[in-house]
Design brief:
Blueprint: E1 2-6, E2 9-13, H1 20-34, H2 40-45, H3 56-81, E3 85-89, H4 95-101, E4 106-111, H5 117-123, H6 125-130, E5 132-133, E6 151-155, H7 166-176, E7 179-183, H8 200-209, E8 212-214, H9 216-230, E9 247-252
Parallel strand pairs: 3-4, 3-6, 4-5, 6-7
Antiparallel strand pairs: 1-2, 7-9, 8-9
Helix pairs in contact: 1-3, 3-4
Amino acid sequence: MKTWTMNGTHHAVAGEEIDFEAEVERAQWRVKNGRKALTDAEYDAIVPHSRDPYGPAFFKFIELDHGWSSEMFGHVLWLLYQPRTVIEFGCGCGGTLAALKSHGTAVLGMDVSVAAAPLIARRDQQIADEMLVHDLAEPWQWVEEGPDFDLAISVEVLEHVTEAGADQAVKTIAAAAPRAIVTACPPVGRNSLHLNEQPFGYWVDKFAAAGMDLDDKETAELKAIMRSFANIERLPVVPTWYFAGYIGVFRWRS
């Protein structure tokens, strides 16, 4: 067991130490230079509401808005769990998976559109080449006997699935690994692509029905670590889904 301190908050985590201060500096640089070539009007025009809602514009928006924080999240997950293998449902621009892979974790991403691949390739060509394209509202059949992952991740994805497809989406995530890290947007009504915004208890019940229970202790630990990044004034805004009431660590029922 090793420890690290960030922004005055002390955490005990499993695994080797990571220089998060250096990660913060890199995050600042990426955010600054990622937007440097765009005027404010151009940035505001990059919205995912088009004929192809999950086309290149959507993933460009995701990358510019919080691509850096997904990388930070990947480093934290590795420190906490040191997973051997990880699958991410809704891998977006690949930040979380690339961070995990940098520590030796074997990773696989799945998203609803191949439009994510070019941005993933900027971080890691192999992750882009191996990405699976699938709509979580539909059943997923593994070609071989079944998945062999230590950890499943789904960040801000479930609200994009229709209510009719919610049970299937949860079943797919729950079947993939004995531990799942899940966030889902609560009812706010500000995004037309959010087809099923629900209180987090709704998802807790659905995962319970699929054989996974919320681990309160692990959830609190993950929230505490991610909240410490949100308190760093010089760091760009850390999305609240990483530490608010709509993130959970789920584990297979014994």
